[in-house]
Write a structure and sequence with these properties.
This protein is of the alpha+beta class and 96 residues long. Helices cover 48% and strands 14% of the residues. It has two domains: 9-47, no CATH class; 54-95, no CATH class. The protein contains three helices and three strands, in the order βββααα. The chain is elongated, with a radius of gyration of 22 Å.
């Protein structure tokens, strides 16, 4: 089952309740949880719009971060980034 599609929005009442609702105005959840917590939930959900699996995105980000760190380390040691070089080939293999 997929979650409710983005965007999500927040509404607070004078009685201390906070409600998260979808773009059609349907309630996703409502509670007396602190507003900053609900704001963070909604910001995170909306930021991930279009991402099917956030875990895969995180793993891809970490792999790219490691690759960039490796590139910077090797460039700092005088490695060539020209096509056909060992470093270029390593990067090509990472993005395949």
């Amino acid at each position: 089952m997929k979650h409710t599609p983005e965007p999500w929005k927040i509404q607070t009442t004078d009685f201390g309740y906070t409600t998260i609702f979808d773009d059609e105005g349907l309630t996703i959840c409502s509670t007396s949880t602190r507003l900053p917590d609900f704001e963070r939930i909604v910001e995170c959900v909306n930021a991930m719009e279009g991402v099917d699996d956030p875990k895969d995105l995180r793993e891809t980000y970490e792999a790219l971060n490691d690759a960039v760190a490796g590139v910077l380390k090797e460039i700092g040691h005088g490695y060539d980034l020209a096509p056909g070089s060992a470093l270029f080939n390593k990067l090509q293999n990472l993005i395949k």
